[in-house]
User: What shape does this take?
Amino acid sequence: MAEFLTIQTLNSLVYSMLLFLLALGLSLTFGLLRVVNLAHGAFFLLGAYVGLSTWRYTHSFVAAALVAPAITVVIGALLEKLWLMRFYLRAELDQVILTFGFALVFADIMKMLWGKDIHGAPAPPAFSDAVQVGNFAFPSYRLVLIGVGVTLFTATWLAIERTRIGALIRASVADRVMVAGLGFNVHFLFTAIFAFGTGLAGVAGWLAAPITGIYPGLDFEVLITTLIVVVVGGLGNITGAFWASLLIGASETYGKALLPEFASFVIFGVMAAVLLFRSWGRDEEEVE
Amino acid sequence: MKPPVHPLAKRPQARSQWTVWLPLTVVIITLLLAPSLGMSSFVQSLIIEILTFSILALSLDILLGYTGLVSFGHAAFFAVSGYATAILASRWTPELLVTVPISIACAAALALPLGWLSIRLSGFYFLMITFAFAQMIYTAAFRWKWLGGSDGIIVPTPQLLGHPVLQSREAFYYTALGVFGIACVLLYGVIRSQFGRTLLGIRENTRRMRALGYNVRRYKLGAFVIAATFGGVAGILNAQFNLFVAPDSAHWSLSALVLVMVLIGGSGYPLGPIIGAFIVISLQHWLSSYTEYWGLVLGILFIVLITGAREGIAGITAALWGARRMS
Assistant: This one.
C-alpha cells in the first residue's frame, strides 16, 4: 500500500510538472495578451516532433531539447506578429475561434510531415537508469522532470515578482494602456511573452516524449488537460496554475489508478466544481 | 463609422420581406417536388443530413447568435436524445409516439440542471464548463457497457401505432422536411417573440438588462433549455435515419463542427445556420476522399471566417444587399 502510494504520488508529481510547463505559458499569455491560445497543444506536439527529428540527426538529447523550443519560439512569434496582433481589440471568443483554427491546421500539417505513426523517444543516456523505491524501480528521468518543474516555477515566480521585466509584465497585466502610455513597448512584450509560452510548450513536448510518446492527437489531449489546469488555477494566475497542476495531476493519476473507467470524468468534474464554487454568489461577468 | 445595425433590430420592410419569401417558397416547392422528379436516393440522404444538422445549428444559434453564449458542448444534447431513442426502441418499444416525446424530454430535462449550473459563468468560462459537461457525457457513453460502450447501439426500425414506418428513403425525406419546417417555425417564433428580443438585449448588454430589472439568468436558462430541446430533435432525426447511435455523437469535434456551421452561415441571422449546415455537409461529402485532412479544411475555414467575415455568409449578403439598396 505504501509503495502504491509512493509510486502514484511520484507519477502524479511528474505529470503535474509537465502540465505546469504547459499551463505556465498559457496562463502568462492570457494574463498579458488576454488571448486563450488553443494552439498551445499544437506547439507541444510540434516541439516533440522537432525534437525527434533533431535527435535522429544528432543523437543528442540536449541538442533536441534546444532546437525544439527554438523552432516553436520562432513560429509562435510569427503567429503573434502576423495574425494575433490584429485581434487584440476583438472579442475574446473571436481569438478563441482563431487559435482553434490554427490548432486544427497545425495538427494536419504535422500529420502530413511526420505521418500518423506513434513514435517513441529515448530518455537522455545520463538518466536512463532507474531508482529503487521499495520493491519498485522508478525511472530516474522522471525524477529529473520533477526537479525541472519546481525549478521553473521558482525561477518564473522570482522573475515576475522580483525583477524589473517582471514588474513591467505585472503592470501590463493590470493596465496595458497605461504602461504603453508611459512609453514602454508593450507590443514587443506581448510578442516576447507569447513566444516564451510557445517555447515552453515546445520544450515540454520533447521532455515529455520519453514518457508519453509522440503521436497525432496528443496535441488535443494535452490542450484539454492544460486548459482545465489553467481554468482551475484562474486564467492569468501563475501561482494558481502551479497548484492547479498539482491538483489535476493528482486527480488524473489517482483517478486512472483507482477508477480507470472514469478518469476523465474526475478531472472534468473537478473543473466544473471549481468553476461553480468560484462563480457562486457573483454575477457571471465577474468570475475571474 | 456607422455602428452595425442588427437585422432584427429594425422590422423588415415589405419589399425586403418579398425578396426573402419568394426564393424561399421556390426552394421549398423544389424540395417537395424533387423526389417525384427523379432526385437520386443519394441526394435525398444528403438533404436529410443537411436538414438534421440545420436544426442542430439553428438551435445552437439561439445561444450563440441571440444570447451571446458560446457553448462548446451542444453535441451533448444531440447525443442524449439519440441515445434515449436507441435505448427505448431497442429495450422497450420502437413506437414513435413513445420514443419521440420521451427522448425530447430527456434532452430538455438534462439541460435544466446543466444549464442552471452553466449560466453562472460567461465568456470563455461558459465555453469550458459546457465543454466539460459534454465531455463527461461522452465518457459515460464511451465507457458504460450499459450504453453500448464504444460500439454504440443499433436502433430498430421505428413503428407508428404498431406499424413499421419510415422504411423508404423517400418517406424519411418528407418526414425530415416536415420536422425541419416545424422546428424552423417554432424557433423563428422564439426569436421574434418578446422573449427573443430580451435575449438580444442580454447579448448586447447584460448589465443594462439586469439593471432594468430583467431576471437575466432565467432568460439565459430558458434559451439554454430551448436550444437543448431542439438539439434533441435533431438527435432523434439522426438516430432514426442512421438506425445507429455512437459515442462520437457527443464528442467535442461534433460541437466544433456545429459551431463552424453557425459561424460560416452567420450567427444571429435567421438563415445563417441553414446556409452553414448546407455548406459544411456538402463540403464533407465532396471532400470525403480526403477526410484524413478534414481538420485542415475546417481550420482554414475558421481562420478565414474570423479574420475576414465575422458575420458569415448571411452577414456578407446582408451587407451587400444594404449597399445596393442604398445606392
